[in-house]
Amino acid sequence: MVKNVFSLIIILMIISTGSNLFAQELYFQNEYFIWGETVPGDVPEDYPEEKWTKGEESEFGLVQYVTYPTIRVFLPEEEKNTGAAVIICPGGGYNILVIEREGYDVARAFNSMGIAAIVLKYRHYDIDIAVSDARQAIRFVRSNAGQWGIDPDKVGIGGFSAGGHLSLNTAVSDPSKDPVASGGYLKQYPYMPDYLMLIYPGLGGFNLGAGDFADEFPPVFMINAMDDDVTPISPMFELAGLLKSGRVSTEIHIYPGGGHGFDLGNDNCNCSDWPDLFRKWLEYNKIILD
Asked: pTM of the entire structure?
């Protein structure tokens, strides 16, 4: 009798937790855990629980201490859908994610242009772990491309500040550091993005040469402001030189002002048109066919 009661308690515990065995919740209907029940990689000792800070217009402005990475999927209206998709990596210096202004707001703007946008809530306590999350997100999106109206050969990744650093790192980092490379049901899907979108990107810490941009490296779109003192423009031109050596299609826009973190534009810059320039660039590179 005691044994049967104990077994019943265990069953009830499993039922009550359901598929969310991580003691972590999804906040949105269009949000998905990218790793399932087993998230690879060690969490720092005594790492705090996930923390959200209210934004200017919503309850979900900033997020910190992520340990269970997710994607939130924003899809355009069917009649506008181009089949193109971009995974958006918010910035925050690998310390916090500016997930509303550099994620959800941008995703909605892209949807209005017929581009699917997938906002990645990535682990930011380790750069290599973040790369693993980004690559897993690309695989996850490709595995669901059919039901989301996405062309699996038109899946890019892009980000802001540290998210730009992560996006570039996703394409150039040693794949042996990727936990899913040794297994996982998504291994059948390629992790290499079809294009890169780098918005005032952090480009420090790379040791790259022209050889890193050979073998059909994906095309690159970059923007920044002249007065950005956090992620200055000079490393962008150094990167552009390497991309040119590798014959990689690259487009750069430098705005006179705006500082760091202008996301969709602000009163101090002439930069609010950059999403339109980005879409035209996708057309030029035959990612969007109009």
From this structure: 0.90
